[in-house]
Amino acid sequence: xxxxxxxxxxxxxxxxxxxxxxxxxxxxxxxxxxxxxxxxxxxxxxxxxxxxxxxxxxxxxxxxxxxxxxxxxxxxxxxxxxxxxxxxxxxxxxxxxxxxxxxxxxxxxxxxxxxxxxxxxxxxxxxxxxxxxxxxxxxxxxxxxxxxxxxxxxxxxxxxxxxxxxxxxxxxxxxxxxxxxxxxxx
Length: 186
Description:
By secondary structure, the protein is of the alpha/beta class. Helix content is 32%, strand content 18%.
């Protein structure tokens, strides 16, 4: 049943019900602190305490090795989802190689849906020396919200997602972002 006027909402019964709902919603008892809350963190988060933790994965490289994301815990990590058919991806690859050389950050190129030969040939031609990973599964693509390319994710040393970047990186803006998040230079 709809109210016919604003005056009906201000009736004593409506006000009484509304104040009761507000009072009850404020009566929840706080949950006891977890044992981990008493301990000092072992690493400093680059982001707030409610930050999303990075999805762990293990992927094969073009060289036949494997990389497990959680093995890189304790250092900054840059994930770049890319493909050789993606013009913005190709344009930003030299900049990502620069970042890998100039910053203390593990850069991982996650190739999207191409063969190892295609990705390896491109990396050789462009002198890309950071690991190129292959064949991310659907869960990894979903967790990192890869709906288009390029997509760059920066993960802080504590494993939290510190930044998500859609599209081609702007070197001056991204460099400023890395500085503001205190990603060390080599």
